[in-house]
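[audit] Reproducing an earlier prediction to check determinism. Same input, same settings, fresh worker. If the tokens differ from the archived copy the diff job will pick it up downstream; this log only records the rerun itself.
[audit] input (187 residues):
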Amino acid sequence: MTDATPRRVLARRDEIVRIISRLAQQILEPEDAQRGLVLLGIRRGGEALATRIAAEIERISGRAPALGFLNINLYRDDRVTHELPDSQIPVDVSGRVVVIVDDVLYTGRTIRSALDAVTDLGRPSAIRLCVLVDRGLRELPIQADYAGRISPTTPDERVKVVLSPHAAATDEVTIHGGLGSADAHTA
């Protein structure tokens, strides 16, 4: 990526800390979330966010939610695969409230894959979706229950999330590209 690539900062460390705190509060609000909450971060993008939300939920409520990670490669319909660790699911999801966590919501295809993966694991009482950024441009009828930022983008822009499992100075959400940029890869 060159320095000439248009770049817009959506959030930095302190704002991300506030967003994560708000998301944790919102996840805890429904009464059913008090019983058997399971956070499942989608491998790569959702891992650090799920870890941080789980820690914040524990800080707020005094109870740690079950925390796991999903590898959705087997469920993708777009032939995009990545070398990722296997899923780590700490508990049976049947009868529990499952919150799927990812960094960016875009077309909805990743989330559709995650829904298939979760339902293969059991029958949760509810499945909800939490994302750091909802960038719009959906191809499927999928909507986040909890979104840190809603930031409409164009197809030739890319949302880049740098997020550590613990608050770090390098945490940042930016939008790159646009208007025919050579860096017009979408995430």
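[audit] rerun output stored. Observation attached for the diff report: DSSP finds three helices and eight strands in the chain.
[audit] end
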